[in-house]
Amino acid sequence: KATGPVYSLYLASISDPPENLKVMVSQANRTVLANLSNGTSLPVLEGQNLRLVCVTRSNPPARLSWAQERQTLSPTQPSDPGVLELPRIQMEHEGEFTCQAQNPLGSQHVSLSLSVHYPPQLLGPSCSWEAEGLHCGCSSRAQPPPSVRWQLGEGLLEGNSSNASFMVTSSSAGPWANSSLSLHRGLSSGLRLSCEAWNVHGAQSIIVLLLP
């Protein structure tokens, strides 16, 4: 009895480790960024609501999780652990957020550096009379770092400057900006002096009235 070749057909599912991992960012109910890469810096205004959605392709489906500074976070939606919602962003949210995708064949992750932005917050000004005249100091904190200047009557005094009547000294470190003002002469009762700080998110000023 003649026999011919026997062909067998095997059907097998294709298995893949997690790949094409991406993060979509939503603020104010609209997607503002997608396909973020590792180390992306993500600025968010303090008080805003933030939604991070992590998606990937794999077979079998990957297990998704979020961590902040390597501390695993409880899923916002247990049925969809790839979603992380951060209502009313505060300073404690600043830092690294990592989405991890893992299945039996491998893992992949994406890390974002979240920076919290906010308008200037003024400290001061505080003034004191000294032998040579009036000395005032003013500090402000903001992100991005603020600029600070003085307004004396109708004139603006900023940076590092001086003449026979005044001297302004300014410095900055991290989110802080500091400025000091020394007035040597030319003071009159009722003269308005104010310290002003500003960045792209807003401005703040405090007025001091010089008394006789």
From TrEMBL:
Query: Is-annotated flag, keyword Cytoplasm?
Result: no
**Superkingdom:** Eukaryota
Q: How does it sit in the membrane?
A: Single-pass type I membrane protein
Where in or outside the cell it occurs: the entry states: Membrane
The record's annotation in Gene3D superfamilies points to: Immunoglobulins (2.60.40.10)
Q: Record's SMART domains?
A: IG (SM00409), IGc2 (SM00408)
Q: Pfam families from the xrefs?
A: Ig_3
| Annotated keywords | Cell adhesion, Lectin, Membrane, Transmembrane, Transmembrane helix
Classification via InterPro entries: Ig-like_dom (IPR007110), Ig-like_dom_sf (IPR036179), Ig-like_fold (IPR013783), Ig_sub (IPR003599), Ig_sub2 (IPR003598), SIGLEC (IPR051036)
Q: Does the keyword NAD apply?
A: no
| Domain Ig-like, residue spans | 18-115
Q: What family does this belong to?
A: Belongs to the immunoglobulin superfamily. SIGLEC (sialic acid binding Ig-like lectin) family.
Protein name in the entry = Sialic acid-binding Ig-like lectin 11
- Gene name, Swiss-Prot/TrEMBL: LOC103584403
